[in-house]
Fold:
Amino acid sequence: MSLLKWNQKYAVGVKALDNHRNTFIGILNELHAAMMMGQAQSVAGPLLLKLKDHARDHHSTVERMLETAKYPGLAQQREQHREFAGKIDEFASRHEQNDPTMYVQLLRFMRDWLHNHMLNEDQQYRPCLNERGDC
Structure:
């Protein structure tokens, strides 16, 4: 059972970015499935690395597009991306310290952040990146 499922309401109308979002959801669901099978400890390390790499690529792509589009909320997006990266670094550190409480907290953080960020923050720049270019 998936923790979070892709829904078109998460889309921003840019295929590459929507594919990135779907990948984030896939990573979250991989960790959830591993936890359900009691394999969180062995799977979390590689998934955290995958998550960090994917987030870095996605965030740099988004920021580049928003900069090109002269999106006025770019600084806020950058700050949110930095906060996300910092939080993932914290979870990675806790994983390295064998903190078993971090898995459920990571799932909750990821689920809530993805859901809220995709539905609220990212939807604000949607018009700026679509055909109209309304920034």
Observations:
- The helical segments are 15-36, 40-68, 74-96, 102-129.
- Residues 13-129 form a domain with the Four Helix Bundle (Hemerythrin (Met), subunit A) fold (CATH 1.20.120.50).
- The two ends are 38 Å apart (CA to CA).
